[in-house]
Amino acid sequence: MYYDRIIPMKEELSIDIIGLAGACSYALDCIEAELVNIKNKHGKRVAYISICMAEYWKI
Q: With contact defined as beta carbons under 8 Å apart, do 17 and 59 qualify?
């Protein structure tokens, strides 16, 4: 239908990894505070998420 009009992009995507990790940390803060009321070991969870992201992107 409309798929024949899609033009593939050959540009590389640049991602601010530090900003992305900060956004994930903030989102985790919000979820922990509102939904599950967990306030300890936040740093360990953020570190784990950061390691998983680094392994995924091989950095």
A: yes
Radius of gyration of the chain (CA): 17
- 26-48: string of b/e by CB count within 10 Å (b at 16+)? eeeeeebeeeeeeeeeeeeebee
Q: Tell me, what's the pLDDT at 55?
A: 92
Nearest CA-CA partner of 53 in 28, 35, 36, 33: 28
Residue 20 CB partners (closer than 8 Å, separation 6+): 53
pLDDT in tens, 22-57: 898 899 888 888 887 777 788 888 888 889 988 988
The residue ranges of every structural domain in the chain are 14-57
Which tokens sit at 27? 């989102």
